[in-house]
């Protein structure tokens, strides 16, 4: 399958072969993402960045990735685009903007909007998040980060024990991850959540139908044990405003818990943002200097993965390697003060 | 007349010769607009995009056009720019921003603002819409689209029958069009509007003074007959909130009406956005697969025309042809799913 | 000292030697800032422009400067970034965005925020204004403008008489200027302010400890006399809403006052924006055609100075001169209609 010219609306689009081709390209592009090399492969191309709903993180990452490839970006966000489109169909907006650009990245609060948008244009549309639906570029960057975490020691993801923790019912990120991670083989997937916030049954069934072992737990103290990967998400206390919370603060993943129950070589991920305030049932910031915490390596993976996706969709993937040249400006060896313990083990 | 260094505040600036020079340049730049060729003629130049009033459409089109020429764009919109300029004169804002850039595109809700702005700087200011005033780049793209529609079959606009339909009293777009289209010869211009929303008399007189025939009608069923061009605009029902509407829903231009009364080779245009909701008195979306509907070809014309204008104002028009090189990325043959029936007839 | 890789949070970072190296580089880059030359020294680099608080002026100037160096810019402002960061620590936001870019320019309403931000990343952070704190790039551009004003006639700033006028208590701009201007020698600094709005004592002491003469006055009519430089700032009437204003309108610096008391070759500066409305106690617009008014030369100085700073921080300063090539597009000889009387004396 070639991705050239495709809309990227769902993570269902990818099989393992396609994932691995994207990982290879993202590896080649990592020095560009880190400001060590330059490519101008998309010089002259224009991306339209249409965020009907605010999302600084995804938007900035996609825009930076497209610019790193040499392209230009024109942006509109939130209130502005919503107000002036009064009465205009999404199909018209889509077709009009398509005349301005070569690629569209959009986010919209309504799940159906991105599909209406894509149906009205031949220009590739990348789903940057559609309501409670999908967020395929986040799923891809999560998989690329996972792939890097496990291959750095010469092994693969196959056969690993994976703990998914937190609100597994409402998170589109963890749902997309379930679809992609189960493309690997022989996993044990431990879903760790308070009972009312468990993983949807159809996703558990998907995992089992692909030959994986599924376990359920409502206690992190038990569920995180022996996991190679802990993928944490936030428990949103406010969902239970008027009722007693159906869980204790055991779902706070902090230094104490990790020290007690996690493997020495575990990998801890989280899609971010995490609630760093005291008392939040989320991944705690006291883990920042623990090399097992992979959340910043994970977010960093978004740039090379999105570059890989954009260059594949625009049909220039094969030409990327020959387009690279050294960058001349200063870039620190490590992006953040806590990066070193991990990166010392791999080539950057 | 050379456009180099000129402010572009009104469509009155252009005569037919200047229009045709811009059309020629826009033709040369069309492959760049469509992602088939690349130019970097304005590499290093900076455009300031100052939208004191929101306008995603015009803003994104201007920004994409400038980036397609190789330049960079810095943008500010709406609330942000208005709040911090508290107490500062427009003249100061203009002169300050002029020190940052080589070209300013601005939109402002007050008609006089763009003139104050232009008076305070030697950097070219492009009017992106000033209240009820003018919108010259929209008028230019309309004319370029018209020119392309009529010349694709080897004829020109001269001698044609043109129906302008809808609210002809309040639309700055259709007023600017009147000024430019009457630079051609021997037209029959049919103004089709409910009586209270008719074309201003001074524009009717302008058309007659330039030797054209003017006809008035308040019935689309009659007014659209035999027209080579139908230029539709929205009837804003809300203007008559408390009174009975002075017209029927005959002003809905839909498939049924077009089938009954329009020529087989008519061209149907509209400045967009159009109100696509049921019951709107506007151009209907059920015409989308009718090749006579030129609205997307029309909006697409904005990129090459704005590129032609910017490169003329910045004095690089003559150097454009030698600056072109092929683009390497994927771009669909047709931007939208309904484009093909028209484009099969002409070189893209 | 090398600026490569440094955070630029305070103007205290600079000594006179560093200032003069930046002036030299800014001189080299002035033709790029004025659209006469092009450099692509930062082609492929990305700047993140994070304005938690609106600031069109500083933001557009920084973005244009980075683009003039060849880099790309991704931007977020105000409401958008503040709302989605709910619960996330500034440290997380900083580290995440650092994975997207090579340089961060940020403004934040809270003084401590920029320090938290910088502590969480190795990517250089430029303070674009932190509440009542500092605004070092404004201080640098002020100093570069001052340097240019005085060296154009072959002399330096040393030994000059400088009048600082207006609200000297609350303005971070004038505080930063005090820190930098006192790096020069043998100045007479006249602080002209109503008594309750005087310069903070520790800054007066700083000036005296560096060997300068300090004088105080509450009457512009006297304080401006014989000054080589008049640096005006706005008196904010609204601070005294419920009390009688502790000063007359003598603090309006207009043509009449300047004609009466200022030297023929005085230089009049102001950080802008100025309140141009009738009755404001600010620098008046009736001075616009007086060549002593340096405010637009001052704001223009922001582009080359910010280019000099960015290229120094990113370690490419030495490579700048060889990277220059001529620009081909139109650029007026003078940016504003009142520029000529000054610029006729110096090479542009």
TrEMBL record, chains A, B, C:
Domain Aspartate/ornithine carbamoyltransferase carbamoyl-P binding span(s) in chain numbering: 6-147
A GO MF term: aspartate carbamoyltransferase activity
Reaction(s) the record says it catalyses: carbamoyl phosphate + L-aspartate = N-carbamoyl-L-aspartate + phosphate + H(+)
Residues of the Aspartate/ornithine carbamoyltransferase Asp/Orn-binding domain: 159-312
Keywords: Pyrimidine biosynthesis, Transferase
Enzyme class: transferase
Pathway annotation from the record: Pyrimidine metabolism; UMP biosynthesis via de novo pathway; (S)-dihydroorotate from bicarbonate: step 2/3
Entry EC number(s): 2.1.3.2
Keyword set includes Repressor: no
InterPro entries, alphabetized: Asp/Orn_carbamoyltranf_P-bd (IPR006132), Asp/Orn_carbamoylTrfase (IPR006130), Asp/Orn_carbamoylTrfase_sf (IPR036901), Asp_carbamoyltransf (IPR002082), Asp_carbamoyltransf_Asp/Orn-bd (IPR006131)
Gene3D superfamilies: Aspartate/ornithine carbamoyltransferase
Family note: Belongs to the aspartate/ornithine carbamoyltransferase superfamily. ATCase family.
Function summary: Catalyzes the condensation of carbamoyl phosphate and aspartate to form carbamoyl aspartate and inorganic phosphate, the committed step in the de novo pyrimidine nucleotide biosynthesis pathway.
Protein known as: Aspartate carbamoyltransferase
Originating gene: pyrB
